[in-house]
Amino acid sequence: MYYFILFLLLLAAQLVYFQIAKKFSIIDKPNERSSHTKPTIRGGGVVFVFAVFLAWVMGAATWPLALGILLVGVVSMVDDIQPLHQLPRITVHLLATGLLIFDISQGTSLGYWIPVLFFLLIGWTNLFNFMDGINGITVLYALVSLMTFYQLPSLASDKELIVLVGMSCVIFAWFNVRKKAKTFAGDVGSISMAMVLGYLMIKVIFITGNPFYLFFFSLYGVDACMTIFVRLSKRENIFQPHRTHLYQYLANEKGFNHLVISFAYAFLQLFINFLWLYAIGLEEIQWVPGLIFVVILLLFYYFLRKYAKPAEKNIELS
């Protein structure tokens, strides 16, 4: 009954937001770079922020985490409505990141690890945001991550937080995992979710001392990082909108159904997570299996991207 009431509160928050979004025209209109074809409510991922706030009210989340997610949620929502200058967004992201790292490190001196954690969390947040481009991909990937984190004994104290955020994902998925989505997560959803997942990831690495838990984010990591590498090699502005991620090539160039791609990413990442949890093991750092895994993943990505990428046209000079 307890969780059912919380589920209803989250559902009510989502439905109320839809009415607000319609009234104030918080709508995502398609353009030449979009993977959707009709105007859709933007910012539905605000329910993730509400879930963290609710977790704090119920005593399942700390105040630094709740405040950090609330800050990025507010600035991202404003940016979804009216694009902001980079300075206020970067400032808030840095402040929120600092709050999350402060939360993780309470009672411990991190020293030189602080800049490393800042880099990891901010980098992951931006990568996750870049990957939010087709129906279902963000929420399904988030659900897989949350399901995996729920299995970890080292995150036992965060189980109620994980359940609440997971319920918000289920609610959002009902309106997003469709051929014609009713809502998109928007920056408010993708960035706040990235922060929550990044927080849990850094926390488990900090507790266990094993960086191989990062493999739980391996598909997003390899797609986003390799896409950035390719764009930089072509001297492109990586902050400009584009459609050159592998999932975008599969959707826009090869014509695969968006939901098929989203479920494929989610299920493949779920397989990888369970492989490391229950077959290979993460009780200690295993360098040889880790190296083999990375090589196989990069080769798989390379050949799949080569298959999906459109052929470049030769330009003849007259």
TrEMBL record:
It is a multi-pass membrane protein. Its main location: membrane. Mg(2+) binds at residues 129, 187. Its cofactor is Mg(2+). One of its GO terms (biological process) is cell wall macromolecule biosynthetic process. The keyword RNA-binding does not apply. It comes from the Bacteria. One of its GO terms (molecular function) is metal ion binding. It is found in: Cell membrane. InterPro entries: Glycosyl_transferase_4. Keywords: Cell membrane, Magnesium, Membrane, Metal-binding, Transferase, Transmembrane, Transmembrane helix. GO terms for cellular component: plasma membrane. The chain crosses the membrane at residues 47-75, 110-130, 137-155, 161-177, 184-206, 212-234, 255-279, 285-304. PANTHER family: PHOSPHO-N-ACETYLMURAMOYL-PENTAPEPTIDE-TRANSFERASE, UNDECAPRENYL-PHOSPHATE ALPHA-N-ACETYLGLUCOSAMINYL 1-PHOSPHATE TRANSFERASE. This is Undecaprenyl-phosphate N-acetylglucosaminyl 1-phosphate transferase. It comes from Cyclobacterium amurskyense.
